Amino acid sequence: MAVRIDIDALRGEAGAVACDAADKLRADGQPAAITPDGGGTSCVIREAGQPPYEVWVGITAEGFTAECDCPASAELCAHAVALTTAAVEDGFDWSSAATSSSAPEVDPRLAELTELARCIPAHRLASLVAEWAAADRVLENRLLAQAGRLAPLTSAELDDVGRSIDGIAHEAISGDRWDLHDVEKAGRAIVEEVRVLAERPATEQTLLVVERAARAWDRIVPPLHDAWETYEEEPGEIGGALRAVHVQLCEQVQPDPDELAERLAEIIGAVEVDSCLDEPWDYLGVLGRRRVKALEQRG
Protein backbone atom coordinates (compact mmCIF):
# COMPACT_ATOMS: atom_id res chain seq x y z
CA MET A 1 0.00 0.00 0.00
CA ALA A 2 1.34 3.43 -0.94
CA VAL A 3 1.63 6.05 1.80
CA ARG A 4 2.38 9.75 2.04
CA ILE A 5 5.25 11.38 3.93
CA ASP A 6 4.66 14.69 5.73
CA ILE A 7 7.89 16.41 4.73
CA ASP A 8 7.24 19.41 7.00
CA ALA A 9 6.88 17.18 10.06
CA LEU A 10 10.00 15.26 9.09
CA ARG A 11 12.00 18.46 8.68
CA GLY A 12 10.76 19.63 12.07
CA GLU A 13 12.01 16.39 13.63
CA ALA A 14 15.38 16.68 11.88
CA GLY A 15 16.04 20.19 13.17
CA ALA A 16 17.26 23.44 11.64
CA VAL A 17 20.94 22.46 11.30
CA ALA A 18 20.24 19.28 9.33
CA CYS A 19 17.59 21.03 7.21
CA ASP A 20 19.87 23.94 6.34
CA ALA A 21 22.58 21.50 5.25
CA ALA A 22 20.01 19.48 3.29
CA ASP A 23 18.77 22.62 1.52
CA LYS A 24 22.35 23.43 0.51
CA LEU A 25 22.76 19.92 -0.87
CA ARG A 26 19.56 20.31 -2.87
CA ALA A 27 20.73 23.69 -4.20
CA ASP A 28 23.95 21.99 -5.31
CA GLY A 29 21.97 19.36 -7.25
CA GLN A 30 22.25 16.56 -4.71
CA PRO A 31 21.16 13.87 -4.87
CA ALA A 32 21.73 13.74 -8.63
CA ALA A 33 19.58 10.61 -8.94
CA ILE A 34 17.39 8.51 -6.65
CA THR A 35 16.70 4.80 -7.03
CA PRO A 36 13.74 2.70 -5.82
CA ASP A 37 15.17 0.28 -3.27
CA GLY A 38 13.16 -2.27 -1.31
CA GLY A 39 10.03 -0.14 -1.16
CA GLY A 40 12.03 2.91 -0.12
CA THR A 41 14.59 4.89 -2.05
CA SER A 42 18.36 5.24 -2.03
CA CYS A 43 21.04 7.45 -3.51
CA VAL A 44 24.66 8.49 -3.27
CA ILE A 45 25.25 12.02 -1.98
CA ARG A 46 28.36 13.80 -3.22
CA GLU A 47 29.57 17.11 -1.85
CA ALA A 48 32.83 18.97 -2.20
CA GLY A 49 35.54 17.94 0.23
CA GLN A 50 33.59 14.90 1.50
CA PRO A 51 33.55 11.23 0.53
CA PRO A 52 30.38 9.99 -1.19
CA TYR A 53 27.73 8.79 1.27
CA GLU A 54 25.14 6.08 0.58
CA VAL A 55 21.68 6.90 1.93
CA TRP A 56 18.45 4.89 2.18
CA VAL A 57 15.07 6.05 3.48
CA GLY A 58 11.77 4.20 3.69
CA ILE A 59 8.80 3.26 5.85
CA THR A 60 9.43 -0.04 7.62
CA ALA A 61 7.59 -1.83 10.42
CA GLU A 62 9.34 0.55 12.84
CA GLY A 63 8.04 3.63 10.99
CA PHE A 64 10.06 6.10 8.93
CA THR A 65 13.62 4.80 8.77
CA ALA A 66 16.76 6.46 7.45
CA GLU A 67 20.19 4.93 7.00
CA CYS A 68 23.35 6.78 5.99
CA ASP A 69 27.00 5.85 6.25
CA CYS A 70 28.02 9.41 7.14
CA PRO A 71 29.47 10.01 10.65
CA ALA A 72 26.44 12.01 11.90
CA SER A 73 24.98 10.51 15.06
CA ALA A 74 21.37 11.58 14.41
CA GLU A 75 19.17 9.25 12.37
CA LEU A 76 17.81 12.17 10.35
CA CYS A 77 21.06 13.56 8.99
CA ALA A 78 21.19 16.19 6.25
CA HIS A 79 21.74 13.49 3.62
CA ALA A 80 18.59 11.62 4.64
CA VAL A 81 16.57 14.85 4.66
CA ALA A 82 17.90 15.79 1.20
CA LEU A 83 17.02 12.36 -0.21
CA THR A 84 13.54 12.38 1.32
CA THR A 85 12.89 15.89 0.03
CA ALA A 86 14.01 14.93 -3.47
CA ALA A 87 11.81 11.82 -3.42
CA VAL A 88 8.75 13.77 -2.27
CA GLU A 89 9.33 16.41 -4.95
CA ASP A 90 9.54 13.64 -7.57
CA GLY A 91 6.24 12.14 -6.40
CA PHE A 92 7.88 8.91 -5.25
CA ASP A 93 5.43 6.12 -4.32
CA TRP A 94 6.35 5.07 -0.78
CA SER A 95 5.56 1.53 0.30
CA SER A 96 4.09 1.03 3.76
CA ALA A 97 6.30 -2.04 4.28
CA ALA A 98 9.72 -1.18 2.92
CA THR A 99 12.68 -3.44 3.53
CA SER A 100 15.68 -1.68 4.97
CA SER A 101 18.67 -1.73 2.67
CA SER A 102 20.73 -3.18 5.53
CA ALA A 103 18.26 -5.96 6.24
CA PRO A 104 19.98 -8.73 4.23
CA GLU A 105 22.75 -10.45 6.14
CA VAL A 106 26.22 -9.53 4.99
CA ASP A 107 28.24 -12.42 3.63
CA PRO A 108 30.84 -13.26 6.33
CA ARG A 109 33.58 -13.48 3.73
CA LEU A 110 32.63 -10.06 2.36
CA ALA A 111 32.61 -8.60 5.87
CA GLU A 112 36.05 -10.09 6.53
CA LEU A 113 37.49 -8.63 3.33
CA THR A 114 35.87 -5.26 4.05
CA GLU A 115 37.62 -5.10 7.40
CA LEU A 116 40.87 -6.11 5.74
CA ALA A 117 40.48 -3.34 3.16
CA ARG A 118 40.07 -0.78 5.95
CA CYS A 119 43.58 -1.68 7.14
CA ILE A 120 45.16 -0.75 3.81
CA PRO A 121 46.34 2.86 3.31
CA ALA A 122 43.90 4.70 1.04
CA HIS A 123 46.38 5.32 -1.79
CA ARG A 124 47.40 1.65 -1.89
CA LEU A 125 43.77 0.50 -1.85
CA ALA A 126 42.96 2.92 -4.67
CA SER A 127 45.90 1.59 -6.68
CA LEU A 128 44.76 -2.00 -6.12
CA VAL A 129 41.19 -1.22 -7.21
CA ALA A 130 42.48 0.61 -10.29
CA GLU A 131 44.70 -2.34 -11.23
CA TRP A 132 41.74 -4.72 -11.17
CA ALA A 133 39.42 -2.25 -12.87
CA ALA A 134 41.87 -1.85 -15.76
CA ALA A 135 41.43 -5.56 -16.50
CA ASP A 136 37.69 -5.85 -15.78
CA ARG A 137 35.21 -3.75 -17.78
CA VAL A 138 32.37 -4.32 -15.32
CA LEU A 139 34.49 -3.22 -12.36
CA GLU A 140 35.83 -0.28 -14.35
CA ASN A 141 32.31 0.94 -15.08
CA ARG A 142 31.21 0.29 -11.51
CA LEU A 143 34.11 2.45 -10.34
CA LEU A 144 33.11 5.20 -12.78
CA ALA A 145 29.49 4.94 -11.63
CA GLN A 146 30.43 5.24 -7.96
CA ALA A 147 32.43 8.36 -8.85
CA GLY A 148 29.42 9.84 -10.66
CA ARG A 149 31.21 9.74 -14.01
CA LEU A 150 28.71 7.69 -16.03
CA ALA A 151 25.80 9.29 -17.85
CA PRO A 152 22.97 7.43 -19.64
CA LEU A 153 23.93 6.34 -23.15
CA THR A 154 22.36 8.14 -26.09
CA SER A 155 19.95 6.32 -28.40
CA ALA A 156 22.71 6.00 -31.02
CA GLU A 157 25.13 4.54 -28.46
CA LEU A 158 22.51 2.07 -27.25
CA ASP A 159 21.87 1.01 -30.85
CA ASP A 160 25.59 0.35 -31.20
CA VAL A 161 25.54 -1.83 -28.07
CA GLY A 162 22.54 -3.76 -29.42
CA ARG A 163 24.23 -4.34 -32.77
CA SER A 164 27.41 -5.45 -31.01
CA ILE A 165 25.44 -8.02 -29.00
CA ASP A 166 23.70 -9.27 -32.15
CA GLY A 167 27.11 -9.56 -33.80
CA ILE A 168 28.51 -11.60 -30.92
CA ALA A 169 25.58 -14.01 -31.18
CA HIS A 170 25.80 -14.25 -34.98
CA GLU A 171 29.53 -14.94 -35.00
CA ALA A 172 29.09 -17.78 -32.51
CA ILE A 173 27.07 -19.93 -34.92
CA SER A 174 28.14 -18.65 -38.34
CA GLY A 175 30.37 -20.53 -40.73
CA ASP A 176 31.14 -24.24 -40.86
CA ARG A 177 33.70 -24.46 -38.07
CA TRP A 178 31.85 -23.17 -35.01
CA ASP A 179 31.51 -25.44 -31.98
CA LEU A 180 29.65 -25.51 -28.69
CA HIS A 181 32.41 -23.68 -26.88
CA ASP A 182 31.87 -20.74 -29.24
CA VAL A 183 28.25 -20.55 -28.09
CA GLU A 184 29.20 -20.61 -24.42
CA LYS A 185 31.91 -17.99 -25.00
CA ALA A 186 29.43 -15.77 -26.83
CA GLY A 187 26.93 -16.09 -23.99
CA ARG A 188 29.49 -14.96 -21.44
CA ALA A 189 30.49 -12.05 -23.69
CA ILE A 190 26.82 -10.98 -23.92
CA VAL A 191 26.53 -11.15 -20.13
CA GLU A 192 29.57 -8.90 -19.80
CA GLU A 193 28.04 -6.37 -22.21
CA VAL A 194 24.78 -6.12 -20.27
CA ARG A 195 26.55 -5.96 -16.91
CA VAL A 196 28.65 -3.07 -18.18
CA LEU A 197 25.49 -1.43 -19.49
CA ALA A 198 23.71 -1.91 -16.16
CA GLU A 199 26.30 0.22 -14.34
CA ARG A 200 24.97 3.30 -16.11
CA PRO A 201 21.82 5.15 -15.02
CA ALA A 202 18.90 2.93 -15.97
CA THR A 203 16.47 4.01 -18.70
CA GLU A 204 13.63 2.43 -20.67
CA GLN A 205 15.97 2.24 -23.68
CA THR A 206 18.59 0.40 -21.62
CA LEU A 207 15.92 -2.11 -20.63
CA LEU A 208 15.07 -2.75 -24.28
CA VAL A 209 18.73 -3.41 -25.14
CA VAL A 210 18.94 -6.01 -22.36
CA GLU A 211 15.79 -7.64 -23.74
CA ARG A 212 17.49 -7.65 -27.15
CA ALA A 213 20.43 -9.45 -25.51
CA ALA A 214 18.07 -12.02 -23.99
CA ARG A 215 16.56 -12.68 -27.41
CA ALA A 216 20.05 -13.09 -28.88
CA TRP A 217 21.00 -15.66 -26.23
CA ASP A 218 17.69 -17.50 -26.68
CA ARG A 219 18.48 -17.83 -30.39
CA ILE A 220 21.90 -19.43 -29.98
CA VAL A 221 21.52 -21.51 -26.79
CA PRO A 222 19.58 -24.56 -28.17
CA PRO A 223 22.74 -26.50 -29.15
CA LEU A 224 23.93 -26.30 -25.53
CA HIS A 225 20.59 -27.67 -24.32
CA ASP A 226 20.98 -30.54 -26.80
CA ALA A 227 24.46 -31.24 -25.40
CA TRP A 228 23.20 -31.25 -21.81
CA GLU A 229 25.57 -34.03 -20.73
CA THR A 230 28.52 -31.69 -21.39
CA TYR A 231 26.85 -28.31 -20.90
CA GLU A 232 24.45 -29.06 -18.07
CA GLU A 233 24.95 -25.85 -16.05
CA GLU A 234 26.11 -23.23 -18.55
CA PRO A 235 22.74 -22.38 -20.17
CA GLY A 236 21.11 -21.76 -16.80
CA GLU A 237 24.09 -19.84 -15.47
CA ILE A 238 24.33 -17.51 -18.47
CA GLY A 239 20.58 -17.12 -18.87
CA GLY A 240 20.19 -16.50 -15.15
CA ALA A 241 22.81 -13.76 -15.26
CA LEU A 242 20.98 -12.02 -18.12
CA ARG A 243 17.66 -12.32 -16.30
CA ALA A 244 19.18 -10.93 -13.08
CA VAL A 245 20.33 -7.80 -14.90
CA HIS A 246 16.93 -7.45 -16.57
CA VAL A 247 15.08 -7.77 -13.26
CA GLN A 248 17.44 -5.26 -11.64
CA LEU A 249 16.83 -2.72 -14.40
CA CYS A 250 13.06 -3.31 -14.27
CA GLU A 251 13.10 -2.52 -10.56
CA GLN A 252 15.07 0.66 -11.21
CA VAL A 253 13.13 1.88 -14.26
CA GLN A 254 9.65 0.74 -13.11
CA PRO A 255 8.29 0.36 -16.68
CA ASP A 256 4.58 0.22 -17.40
CA PRO A 257 3.71 -3.26 -16.03
CA ASP A 258 1.25 -4.11 -18.80
CA GLU A 259 3.76 -3.21 -21.51
CA LEU A 260 6.51 -5.16 -19.74
CA ALA A 261 4.27 -8.20 -19.34
CA GLU A 262 3.40 -8.06 -23.04
CA ARG A 263 7.06 -7.88 -24.05
CA LEU A 264 7.97 -10.76 -21.75
CA ALA A 265 5.13 -12.87 -23.15
CA GLU A 266 6.36 -12.18 -26.69
CA ILE A 267 10.00 -13.03 -25.82
CA ILE A 268 9.02 -16.21 -23.98
CA GLY A 269 6.65 -17.30 -26.73
CA ALA A 270 9.18 -16.74 -29.51
CA VAL A 271 11.41 -19.69 -28.56
CA GLU A 272 10.89 -23.43 -28.74
CA VAL A 273 12.92 -24.12 -25.59
CA ASP A 274 12.70 -22.11 -22.37
CA SER A 275 13.62 -18.43 -22.67
CA CYS A 276 16.17 -17.08 -20.22
CA LEU A 277 13.49 -14.60 -19.08
CA ASP A 278 10.90 -17.30 -18.45
CA GLU A 279 10.81 -16.99 -14.65
CA PRO A 280 7.71 -14.83 -14.09
CA TRP A 281 7.92 -14.86 -10.29
CA ASP A 282 11.27 -13.06 -10.47
CA TYR A 283 9.24 -10.08 -11.73
CA LEU A 284 6.64 -10.11 -8.96
CA GLY A 285 7.74 -6.76 -7.53
CA VAL A 286 7.40 -5.09 -10.93
CA LEU A 287 4.42 -6.88 -12.50
CA GLY A 288 2.27 -7.76 -9.53
CA ARG A 289 0.73 -11.16 -8.78
CA ARG A 290 -2.05 -11.00 -11.40
CA ARG A 291 0.30 -10.39 -14.33
CA VAL A 292 2.81 -12.96 -13.08
CA LYS A 293 0.09 -15.62 -12.95
CA ALA A 294 -1.08 -14.64 -16.43
CA LEU A 295 2.48 -15.04 -17.74
CA GLU A 296 2.75 -18.45 -16.09
CA GLN A 297 -0.48 -19.61 -17.72
CA ARG A 298 0.60 -18.35 -21.15
CA GLY A 299 3.86 -20.26 -20.79
- Report the major sheet: 4 strands, antiparallel
Distance between the termini: 29 Å
| Strand fraction | 5-15%
- Low-pLDDT windows of residues: none
- Class derived from helix and strand content: alpha+beta
Strand order of the largest sheet: 2-3-4-5
Shape: globular
| Residue share in helix | 55-70%
Mean pLDDT value: 90
Number of helical stretches of at least 4 residues: 14
Strand elements, count: 6
- Using only C-alpha atoms, the radius of gyration works out to 22 Å
> Could you spell the SSE succession in H and E letters?
EHHEEEEHEHHHHHHHHHHH
Descriptive account of the structure:
The protein is of the alpha+beta class and 299 residues long. It has 14 helices and six strands. The chain has a four-stranded antiparallel beta sheet. It has a two-stranded antiparallel sheet with strand order 1-6. Strand 2 and strand 3 form a beta hairpin. Helix 8 packs parallel to helix 11 and helix 12 packs parallel to helix 14. The longest helix has 20 residues. The protein is globular, with a radius of gyration of 22 Å. The model has no long low-confidence stretch (mean pLDDT 90).
Brief overview:
With 299 residues, this protein is an alpha+beta fold.
Describe the protein's topology.
Blueprint: E1 2-3, H1 7-14, H2 16-27, E2 35-37, E3 40-45, E4 53-60, E5 63-68, H3 78-89, E6 94-95, H4 108-118, H5 122-133, H6 137-146, H7 155-173, H8 180-198, H9 204-220, H10 222-226, H11 234-253, H12 257-269, H13 284-287, H14 289-298
Antiparallel strand pairs: 1-6, 2-3, 3-4, 4-5
Helix pairs in contact: 1-3, 2-3, 6-8, 7-8, 7-9, 8-9, 8-11, 9-11, 12-14
